[in-house]
Amino acid sequence: MTNHSIAREGGCICGHVRYQVSSDPLIVHCCHCRGCQKNSGTAFALNALFEADRVTLLSGEVEEITVPTPSGTGQDITRCAKCKIAVWSNYNMGGLRENIRFIRVGTLDDPDQMPPDVHIYTCSKQPWVRLPENDRRAETFYKISETWSPEALARLAIIETSAGIKIS
To answer: How far apart are CA 147 and CA 27, in angstroms?
Structure first.
């Protein structure tokens, strides 16, 4: 299913930062937790997860800031050094920080290609947000082994083996 030669680009609003992703995402989360609501300034965050080595900064300078998360582990948000738009995040838990980038779908040149695979933390979803009836959802998080596609699980196993970690 994944065509590893697929290349999609994105960037910040001022155009200073440009990046490329070189595959389909592992999964796309629509997160409704209060932390994502505060960090995005809206009702949810839409993140596409990619192996870190499949995300390339093409141009521009970025800066990382660490912000608290409800779990207490924190997240590093990578922003354009000029306009401060968040382009991706790294979560500081279970080996995710160095190995998986959470690309902000809205920063892709064609964000329409990446609708959510799952809505997470729906327990704190804004009451006026209506989810499509057939969309997958979880009250909090989910079991990776039961939610990710077989292909994404195989890619995750490669990350776990090469990094000597266990995420799933």
So the answer is: 9
